[in-house]
Design a protein that fits this description.
By secondary structure, this protein is an all-alpha fold. It has helices at about 5-30, 35-60, 65-75, 75-90, 100-115, 120-145, 150-155, 165-185, 190-220, 230-234. It is globular.
């Protein structure tokens, strides 16, 4: 493997590895919140898919069961994105129970895997990959509808954005970028999807950190001239 390939492998796998660590962080984060579990699951599903893509790109002799596992995990990225966003708005109770929602999807993809294993039915899984792409897009559009008021606030800037708003939009637009990278991979490169995940992962992190620093600086300026006299402080 050449140096350029080694660097490509490193940067492609780095985002997936950090995605697993961040998924574990959100899973054990306290206080417990359903939205954190959905976000952790989404990151984990993406990381499994990316790891599969990276290994397969550099080793096309990878056992077909791993390809099937990667695509099965990929099938849940869109649903977990949508459930994460709905849970942030406390909407999970007003819709089809999320347990039933995930159970139906799990039964569907597991049944496909049992009846048509990748090893002997690769053509079926090529079709499944297309289904997953459009299914993911469907959930992205549902998520966009849920975030419609945030988009209006972003355009007209009538209200200040809170950290949760920035985080929600970062996760959403990150999904859009990764979806586009995977959807257009046939015209670019198979590894682009993995690289896009690493790019989006660190870009989202920088956006949140920058917003925090900006808010911290504004608070310092706001209260800079509101010092109490020494006697009152004592």
């Amino acid at each position: 493997m050449s140096i350029s390939q080694q660097l490509l492998f490193f940067f492609s796998a780095l985002g997936a590895f950090n995605g697993v660590l961040l998924a574990l962080y959100f899973f054990f984060l306290k206080p417990k919140a359903l939205s954190n579990y959905f976000l952790a699951a989404m990151l984990l599903m993406l990381s499994v898919r990316i790891f599969k893509s990276v290994i397969f790109y550099f080793d096309d002799e990878l056992a077909k069961i791993y390809l099937q596992l990667g695509l099965s995990a990929f099938f849940f990225v869109g649903p977990f994105l949508y459930l994460f966003i709905r849970s942030k708005f406390s909407l999970t109770k007003s819709w089809l129970s999320w347990q039933i929602h995930l159970a139906i999807l799990f039964i569907f993809i597991t049944s496909i895997g049992i009846i048509f294993p990748y090893q002997s039915n690769p053509e079926v899984w090529y079709l499944i990959l297309k289904v997953i792409s459009y299914q993911w897009l469907f959930y992205i559009l549902l998520s966009a509808y849920t975030l419609r008021h945030e988009f209006l606030r972003l355009v007209y800037k009538k209200e200040k954005f809170h950290e949760d708003d920035i985080w929600l939009l970062s996760v959403f637009f990150g999904n859009v970028i990764i979806w586009l990278a995977h959807f257009t991979a046939a015209y670019t490169s198979y590894i682009v999807g993995a690289l896009s995940f690493s790019f989006v992962f660190y870009l989202s992190f920088l956006v949140v950190v920058f917003h925090r620093r900006k808010m911290g600086a504004l608070k310092m300026v706001k209260y800079a001239d509101k010092k109490i006299i020494i006697s009152e402080a004592e």
